[in-house]
Fold this protein.
Amino acid sequence: MSVSIRIDDALYETAKVRAKTEMRSIPQQIAYWAKVGRAALDNPDLPIEFVRDTLQAMEEESEPFEFPDE
């Protein structure tokens, strides 16, 4: 679903620059910021860097680790 919203011009320009450097579209960048912000508000005792890094790690593709048989 797509919804149009109005945002401040300065926020749009900042998102445009960050989106390019982080290889996202502008809507994806704003959605990412919203996701990080929501997680930070839900966990005020955690540093924002930890919240950001955890969300990024959750998005990465990975294979389960298997311990070798001894």
